[in-house]
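Re: folding output
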Amino acid sequence: MVKKMKQFKKLLLVIPAFLLIVSCGDDFTILAPQSERNVENFYQTDTDFRTAINGAYAGLASNSLYGRNFMLLHEMRSDNTSNAGGATGLAESLERITRFNELPGATELENTWAGGYSVIARTNTILNRIGNADLDNPALGERIRGEALFIRALVYYNMAITFGNIPMQLDEVTSPQVEINQVSAEVIYNQIASDLEVAEGLLPASYTGNDIGRVTSGAAATLLGLVHLTAGNSGQAEAALRRVVNSGQYDLVTNYANIWGPANKNSVESIFEIQYKSGGQGTGSGFTEYYSPDLSISGGVGGGNVPQGVTADLLANFDEENDERYDGSFGLAVDETIYLSKYDAPQSIAFDSDANFMVFRYADALLMLAEAIGDTPEAYGLINEVRQRAGLTEPFETLAGSFEEKLLEERRREFVGENKRWPDLLRYGVAPQVMSQFLANEGFTPADIRLLYPIPQRELDSAPGQLTQNPL
């Protein structure tokens, strides 16, 4: 029975939760046949596939991924924000993340891994089934295939950034006999780049009506550009990002502060957002609680709800008087605490904000294209376009420092609180230096900075000898 339970845990990561209709107390051999019968009965109609792809979007929005944990692992990990909820009790694991000594059994790691592979499993099932379905609207089927490829690629990108060498599962799993195929992050990047090239050709440039917010061809090209930059393929990144910039679909919002909040969802600057909807249906966001203090509901920063405070180092990086992004990013609480205000939103129910989370926006495409092009007048023009929106008149090329140093800090100011700082530090190859300097007062050296999170111990135990742990 112990062996069967280990197999069951492993299968949980690769079969969508709504297909798991047998409890762990039942004989495991019953699971696969019943699961397969449910798949056969479900994936047949246009409505079935719409429901399935919506489930994949919901997985992205869950607390395991963009709704909470990516914010912890990619923003709180960095020098932008820190754990503001104490260092003992339930907050101990959060403090460990900020101090690079998280444990392999940390709930945040386990849930991120399980949530990521759950979404991957959902998309794998869609991709396996949709080609054989007799749909009333074949064009819809092709679009959904593109959406599934993008969502899978987005999750795999985040998983590779977080854990490095991870299992790559591209096929639907219908049997408990799961082969764990752990591959390098480079293999993951190559695969998702190939998938995104296909997805871009299947997806529309824009949507209308209730479909606004779904993945577009521009979103696929933006992620493709990011993946190529991460893999060191500047030329391929440039080609993908030029398609975004030259598409005419996007522009910078005139006022930086008007990017945020429920009234500004899916603006002209938006390339891809995680969609949230308040109303007590479990589809709202908790980001207001995570960042904003002095709330009448659920505490806010310091209230025990995964609170995050901005660092003094981050605030010192801004030209407070001239950079409009300062007032557009931060607020002042009644106790004079400076906090990240991008996610402020009126709400009557705790963890039920109507504000979306921005994954990609046009400013990101401009700055990544500049990164891909390199130290040239054309790149300066792209960066200055972003700086001028912020009210900064001094040309980028006249600032002190190297091109890469200046661009990295420009990205820091532009995207604070948007889950980009830690991946940026990794991509630029400066995470050990930047973070050890940030934590120098606590005796940190570059050798103390972990570049990868531990693979959850639960996964190692469930697949003995099949996964190699990251350095601890």
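--- second protein (sequence, then structure) ---
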Amino acid sequence: MSTRLTQLLHIRYPILQGGMAWVSDAKLAVAVSKAGGAGIIAAGGRTVDWGREQIREAKKETQNPFGVNIALMAPNKDELVDMICEEKVSFVTLGAGNPIPYFSKLASAGILKIPVVPSARLAQRVEANGADAIVIEGTEAGGHIGVLTTMTLMTQVIPLVRIPVVAAGGIGDGRGMAAALIMGASGVQLGSRFLIAEECSVHPNFKNKLIQADELDSVVTGQTIGHPVRGVRNSFTEKFLALERLNIAKSELERIATRTNHLAAVEGDVENGMVQAGQNLLILKQIEPVAVIIERIIAEATDALKKAPTLL
């Protein structure tokens, strides 16, 4: 399957694996890259030494392209960028902040720049400043989100830019991938779908929580303080949303939310931690190898695309 994204990154399938904090490590990234997609190591919340170690571990396991995600709200973002330039990965995705100041340094190191953007205005801005591709992430996605849906973003952004566009948010199977490609996207980014992969190191309790989740268990916390985060309904989200309705001070809400992602993903407390995941919960029903997940998605997408002309 050839698209502008596969040509840009030199990968077999137009699939990026989302950079999920405390989850996306070398093991998961390598599995995705070996299966034909592009794996991503998430450096958000991590030390520079950890990031360097993960990059070098991935390079030992595969010669296929992989990338690193940088959350630009991280206090050590400058040091992380310097380290990534030294280690020379294939590409970097950047979100939760202004990526443009880092474009020149990354380009000088030969690293492709793929910002994650939540609006058409920002998509045009990063393109004008040298982005090589963009990820447009809809509010259906897990973790930190914007306000526009994936469909809305594809409708508005794709006609406005010339660089490859990767669609993300609520896409978890081949039908969604086919729809994105027909809309003009060059690929898709999947996060939640890989959370229940065998190679994903997230805590087993986290995987089980997702498998047991109902379609209406997706909730958003933090909207009142300007930091909306999507996850699975549990004791933490119920308590946090109740506090938001009481107009608790922003500083107190931020304190309560601190490290709740780590609590769920790493420590396995899926009732008092934030189980970050997108809205496509019903398809998360079976733990399988990454290669099986990707091959099924490609088969589904191929089948959907073959059937599309019959609708005319």
